[in-house]
Amino acid sequence: MVTETLKIAPSVYWVGVNDTVTRLFEGLWDVSEGVSYNSYLVVGSKNIALIDSVGSRFEEEHLAKIEQVIDPAEIEYLILNHMEQDHTEAVPKLLQKAPKAKVVLTPMAFSMLKAFYHLEPQTLIVRGDSTQIDLGGKSLRFVPTPFLHWPETMSTYLAEEKILFSCDLFGSFKRLPEKAILDADIQDVERYIQEASREYFAGVISRYREYVLKAVEKFKALGLEFEVLAPSHGPVYTAHREEVISLWSSWSRPDYARKVVIAVGSMYGTTFKLVEALVEGVEEAGGEAVVCNLVEDAPAKTLGALLDAPALIVGTPTYEHGLFPPVAHFLRLLESKKLTGRVAGAFGSFGWSRGGVKKLVERLNALGFRLVGNPLEVRGSPLSEDLEKARVMGRRVADIAFYEGGKHGFPKV
Ligand code: FEO
Fold it and tell me: How many CB atoms are closer than 10 A to CB 99?
């Protein structure tokens, strides 16, 4: 058990945990590099508050860290910014150790607390944007920021230290390094920001991206000036906070790049043989082609690549007369995350029965993609004429996405 605590500001401690055992976060998202669950202890001269908690698997470690700083029985407030189980499963045990704690949460979070854990503790219910508590020299204000990424979510602001505890908003996959949580202390912090946070946004938050923009606007409108951004997963940002907010905002709008994502499922590599020609076509149009392997790459990586791409080309082999299952799963995720409505191309290969590309076209059309040109379906390995068709498809998809998109009401770059 790791018991180190980290100080992020005077009398503000990280008492969270690093998870290196879960393989799929939410049962969906690859976390082979781990993930942290951040929980913070704010110690005032009169009262102590704990902000968010952890999953049950880590409750002993969490408690041991809290005990390094204070006696849990002294906790006056337990603030639950979000009810998802990665932050709340330890709450029943925690409340046994902190019997006088009032749970601070939104009305919907309270109904979830009852449903999930059959608990009805003392509460302070957050209504509107002005609920505050005084800890003695430190005050916490609670601001509902709904649908980030559940309806009950809120953020907590510590005025004296200018810290925003934003829960999942601005979070990141990838466990924290040893003895570090502040961006200034993390050597590869750009990897967190550009890759792990992007994947987290794509996988967990992206369906509700309009609410990211609403939350950022709300913080401004309320005049919350924060110098420290402390989410519930990944690094705490100080110098990099504006960069993180700006990136999350751009993924939420989105701001498109001259980029085409080529997402391919392949059983034996035959469908992949068309990819090089597709890439060539995209590059001829002056774009960047990002190739994603729907079998080997983490799904959040592919979704993350698509955030700022106005076009998508999907490849599938035929599998038992229809779509290859990893491709079908990817299309379902696109629907769930609302990453649709882009210019698209479809291609694939088959051995003894057509069917995969036909189903792919049906699904892309149903999802609101604008298909360009004729779908390309090859029996066995592609011939030179097939490669030429693939090159033309790559070029046409990119051309239309980059230059004609605006005129047709599609994403303009
Ligand atoms: Fe980190 Fe939505 O829980």
Answer: 11
The residue whose CA has the least distance to atom 2 of ligand 1 is 84
Q: Is 168 in the pocket of ligand 1 (CB under 6 A)?
A: yes
The answer to whether 144 and 58 have CB atoms below 8 angstroms apart is no
Asked if residue 82 has its Cβ within 6 Å of ligand 1, the reply is yes
Superfamily of the domain at 260-400? Flavodoxin domain (3.40.50.360)
The β-bridge partners of 125 are 105
* Residue 308 Cβ < 6 Å to ligand 1: no
What are the residue ranges spanned by the domains of the chain?
6-251, 260-400
Q: Is the peptide bond before 149 cis (omega within 30 degrees of 0)?
A: yes
Strand partners, 345: 313
**Mean pLDDT, the chain cut into blocks of 10 residues (413 residues total):** 83 97 96 98 98 98 97 98 98 97 98 96 96 98 98 98 98 96 96 97 97 98 97 98 97 92 97 98 98 97 96 98 97 97 97 96 98 95 98 97 64 49
Q: Which CATH superfamily is 6-251 part of?
A: Ribonuclease Z/Hydroxyacylglutathione hydrolase-like (3.60.15.10)
Atom nearest to 150 CA in ligand 1: 2
Q: Which atom of ligand 1 is nearest to the CA of 168?
A: 1
Assigned token pair, 225 = 């000036």
Q: Are strands 311-319 and 288-293 parallel, antiparallel or unpaired?
A: unpaired
Give the ranges where 137-270 is alpha helix by DSSP (H). 189-191, 197-200, 209-221, 241-252
The number of the ligand 1 atom at minimal distance from the alpha carbon of 153 is 2
